[in-house]
Amino acid sequence: MSGIDIAENQPESFAFTPENMAKADAIIAKYPEGRQASAVMPLLDLAQRQHDNWIPLAAIDVISEKLTMPRIRVLEVATFYTMYNLKPVGKYFLQACTTTPCWLRGSDQVMKCIKDKLGLDNHQTSEDGMFTLLEVECLGACANAPILQVNDDFYEDANYENTAKLLDALKKGEVPEPGSLSGRNHSEPEAGAQTLMSYRDNEGARTYDAQISAAQSTDANAGDK
Amino acid sequence: MPKLTVNGTEVEVPAGASVLQACEEAGAEVPRFCYHERLSIAGNCRMCLVEMERSPKPVASCAMPAGEGMVIRTDTDLVKKAREGVMEFLLINHPLDCPICDQGGECDLQDQAMAFGHHSSRYDENKRAVEDKYMGPLVNTIMTRCIHCTRCVRFSTEVAGVTDMGLLGRGENAEITTYLEKALDSELSANVIDLCPVGALTSKPYAFVARPWELRKTETIDVMDALGSNIRVDTRGSEVLRVLPRLHEEVNEEWISDKTRYACDGLKRQRLDKPYLRKDGKLQPVSWDDAFAAIAAKMKGLKGAEIAAVAGDTVDVESMFALKGLMTALGSPNLDCRQDGAKLDATTRAGYLFNATIAGIEEADAILIVGANPRWDAAVLNSRIRKRWLTGGLKVGVIGAPVDLTYKYDHLGAGAQTLTELADGKNDFASVLKDAKKPMLILGMGALTREDGAAVLAMARKIAESTGMLVPASKDEEGNEVPAWNGFSVLHTAASRVGGLDIGFLPGNGGADVAGMLDGASKGKIKAVYLLGADEIDTQRLGDAFVIYQGHHGDRGAHRADVILPGAAYTEKDGLYVNTEGRVQMGLRASFPPGEAREDWTIVRALSAHLGATLPYDSLEQLRAALRKSNEVFTEIDIAPKAAWGPFGAEGAMSETGFGTTVENFYMTDPISRASQTMAECTEVFVLPKQDKTGTEG
Known about the structure:
Shape of chain B: globular
Largest interface: A-B, 12 and 18 residues
Structural class of chain A: alpha/beta
Distance between the termini of chain B: 66 Å
Shape of chain A: globular
Oligomer: heterodimer
Radius of gyration of chain B: 28 Å
Structural class of chain B: alpha/beta
Strand content of chain A: 5-15%
Number of helices of chain B: 21
Radius of gyration of chain A: 22 Å
Order of helices and strands of chain A: HHHHEHHEEEHEH
Strand order of the largest sheet of chain A: 2-1-3-4-5
Helix content of chain A: 25-40%
C-alpha cells in the first residue's frame, strides 16, 4: 500500500467559498511578506474542511497559485502529513492509533472490532461511504490509550465493546459525546481519583478549581513577603 | 577563516565551509550521496558521518559548518561503524540488481558499499517496490533503486529552474516524482542522470547499450551551441555511444544541455560515407578522384568572382582556414561564415565576443538581454544567469520576445525602439545599468540577423559605452589590482562563428555575403558555390550554380549539391573551435569518419592540388602553424581573452519590428541534431505541444 494515495476521479475545479477566502487571507496575513508559503498547511486544512474532508488536485492548484509556490511543493506537504486526505473518505473518518502505548492497552481489539463491525482494513472505506479507517501513529493522548479519533474528536479508553457501541451509534447518525468511552473522568485513574482527595466533596466530585485558585493567590501573597 | 584539526592535521578553511569540505582539504575521504558542491545542502543520506570532539553522536559533516578549533576524526571505529550502519539501512530497500543495472560500474552506491559497507545484510524481510515514473524521453526511471538523496529535486529546482520534481509521501512511502508524472521540461534535464548516485535515473537512449569499462573515452569539445561545452565522448569501436559533461568551471561547470548529450545518435544516421556526383539529375557514388576531377572540370575557366564559399555552423577552424586559403588562391572574394546573415563586424574583436565571459556573469549586477533567448541559444549559459540571479541583487531586462527564462526579468520592449530609448537614457532600465558596478549587455542573434543588424549593433555599442559597461582596470583602496570589465557580450548560436570571424572567413574586397551570393547565384552571376557544412541557407535560391557540398550529413546542402565530398563530424576529427567568449579550445578525435569520408581540412587540401592551387601544408601541424601565424589568438588554448575595444557596427535607421529569436526548435538546430531520433522525440514532447497549431496537422 503506497502512502501516496491520490484519487483517480478528480473534480474539474475548486474554489474557496467567500468566507474561507477571507479566512485564507487572514491566515496569509500572519506571515511576513515573501513568506506566504508558510500558510500552506492551514490553507490545505481549510480546503479539506470545505471539500468533504479531502483535498482535490484542483485545490492544490488554487493554493499554489494563491501562495505563489510550485504545485509540487504543495503536493509534497499534502502527501507528507497523514492528516491530509487526497481521496474521498467516509462521513466518519476513523483514525485508530496503534503506536506502543495504545497497542499495549489493546488497540488490536479496537482494530478487530472495526474489522468485525464494518469489515474495514487499514486505508479502506465502507461501501456505504459512512466510514474510512486509517491506522495512525501516536495521537498524543497516551494517558487514555487506546484512542480512536472520529473526524476531529478523540474517543478514549476504547476497547472491543465500547468501540462496538460507538460504531453502532455513529451508524444510527448519533454522535456520542467525545472523551472517555469507559466513563472515566478525563485522565484520572480508572478506579477514580486517588490523590488530591481534600479537593473533593463527599460524592467525589471536584471542588478543587476554586480551592486551587484560592491556594495560588495565597502562594502569590507569600511570595510578596 | 576557521582553523580545525582533521585526523591530527590542522587545516584552515574559508568561513562558511562545511566540515566535509574541511575534511577534503585535509585529504580525508568522506563518502556521501546527497551532498553535491553545486546544490544546496540536504543532509538526508547520513553517509558523511564523522566523529567530532565533545559531540555525543557522530555528526553529518556536509551540514555542519566548520568552526574554530573543531577536532574531527574520520578514521575511528565509531565512524567506521556509523558508515556501515548507514550503508546497511540504505541497502535495505535497494534491489540487488547491479548485474542488470545501467549504473553498474559507475555507481556511487556500488563503490561506496564496497569501500565503506558491511559485508552482508541482516535484513531478510521483503524489500519495498516502487512504481517507475515517466519523466520524458530522456530520463529512464527505476524508482525501486532510489535512495532519496533528492539531488535530482534540488538540481531541477535550483539549477534548471523548473519546479516539477519533488519527493512525495514520507518514510517508507517516500517517492521521487514529477508533478502528475509530467515530462521534465528543461533543456538541462538529463544532468539529473549524472547526479543520481544510484541507478534510479538512467539514460533512456543509452539503456542497456554498454558497460562503462567497454568504452573508450575521449575528452573533446561540443559544437551544438557556441558555448564550447567540455565533453567526454564515449565510443565503442567506431560508434559514439554517449556524451558526458567534463568539468570546466569557466565554461559549462559540470552541466551540458540535452542536445549536447543526446544529439550523438544523429551521428549514425543519414551519413555521407562516399563521394557523390550528380549525373543525369541523380546523385551517384563516385571515387574521390572522379569527384575532384568533376570539380576541376567545372571550375576551369571560372573567374574568381564567379566562385563563392559558405562555411557552416559546426565546422572546425582548420577546415575554414584551408578553404579560405583555397578561395584566396582562386581569386574569389566571396566568402562568408555567417549563414544566418548576422551583421557581425569583424573589424574589432571585442565587437563580436562575449566579452564579460561566462564566468563573469556571476559578477554582473545588471544584465540587459537584447534579441536573445539564452535558454535556447545557450542553455548552460542561461543556468549561469539563473545561478547569479538566485544569489540576489541582479536585475535583468529583456528586449525581444518575452519567454520563460527560469528567472524574473523586466520586459522592456520588443524591438529597436526600446533600444533607442535606453541609449537616450529615457528608459528606467538605463539608470539601473548606469548604477550597476558591472552591467552587462547580452546581444543575441535575433537582433543581428536582420536587415538593420549593423545599426542595432552600433546602437548596442552606444548603450555599452553610455551606461558604463566598459570599466578600465584600476586599483582598490588596498592597492589590489581590479581587472577591467567589459560587459558587452555577443551571444552566438553557432560553434564555428567566432572562429570564422577570427580567421576572416568574410567577404573580401567587393565580395558578396551570403545574401549577395544567393542573389548572384539565382541571377547566374555566381557559377560555383562551395558549401562547407552549410545547411542553414535557402538552397532553393542557388539557381543553376554548380554546388559543391562538403559535410557529414545528407541534409539540405547535400540535397541540392552537384558534388558531395564526405567529411567528418565533430567527434571524428581533431579541430579547434572558438567559443562565444573567444576561447580557443581543441577538440580531439573520438572515432573515425564512416566509409570513405575524410577529415575536412584534408579534403580541401587534396582538392586544392586538383585545382592547381596547392595549399602550402601537408599536415595538421603545418596548417596550425600557418593559422597561428595569421592570427595570434590561436597561439593560446583555453584562455578567455581580453579584447581591445574599438569601433564596430554602422549607425543607421532601425525598423520597428520586434527582435525575434533565431533558434526555433532547441532540439534541432544542425544536421546532426536533425538526424537524431532522440532529438525528434524531444521535439515531439516538448516543442510541438507549445507551438500554435498550424492547421495542417491531421
